[in-house]
Amino acid sequence: MKFLAFDNTWYVVALIWGLLLIRVVVPRVPRLRSYRASVLEITDSLLVAVILVFLILRPFVVQAFYIPSRSMEQALQINDRILVNKFIYFFRQPQVGDIVVFVSPPSADAEQKDFIKRVVGLEGDRLAIRNGKLHRNGQPVDEPYVDQPMLYEFPEYVDHYTVPNGTVFVMGDNRNFSNDSHIWGPLPRQNLLGKAFCIFWPPHRVRLLRSVQGSQPQSASGRDTSAIRGARVCEDRGPAQRGSQPVSARRGPSSPGRRRSGAWRSLVAGWLRGWMRSEWVPWPARWWRRQCCSPCRLGSGA
User: Fold this and answer.
1) I need a labelling partner for 26 at 20 to 30 A (CA). Which of 7, 91, 261, 301 fits?
2) CATH code for residues 67-236
């Protein structure tokens, strides 16, 4: 099954050549004449699928990755499988709060494995870590995705660090256990592979990953110094901050039919999770579980 993971480019090349060989040989074998139409149809479908996935989708559109470390807890847990949008940065610049996958610089990892971190600073931003909190452009940043205060100061001998042009500053959400820019410096933008946008495995962890910008306190003029975006920030606000109208009045009364549909969704989701974990799953589903849920592994220092 390790062969079927297709982590090596030569595996994909060998598979394509094998399918092409079948496509050429089968019509020339008289004994397979009765099965020729079916075999050629399956071979053509597999060939198109392999070319589409490994030569178009995976290099340029979307790719799956496996989380091996705890550097991005709590947003990403060990063994999470994520999907990464690989074309988004062809159309826009990275933004603060983006969870990005990138090729690590040599100063971070000698093998230059793929890492995953959160963007906390863009070119020209003045960053500092003081008293366990991140400061951006002279203001402390409220980061709801960071659970523990940082146990280090950055930079040590000057007031702040200015992110150079053409780079971004990335850090893991689990700041005290992350090999990130505060150790090896800014990340060149050309090293970015893409933006993580969802967790697709395990089933109980399936969710979208939204960019969450840390909020900064209001300035003396009363204007907020940075935008606050992301679902998690909205969830942390109380009813009074979301508006004076009660939640029940905005959403309407809860009907028995709505409660029943929610119960059915929970029941079906629980059954599917148990079914996919069991050994009674048919072999195609088991193969999909092993292959689609064992994608490219990020570096252990990620």
Assistant:
1) 7
2) 2.10.109.10
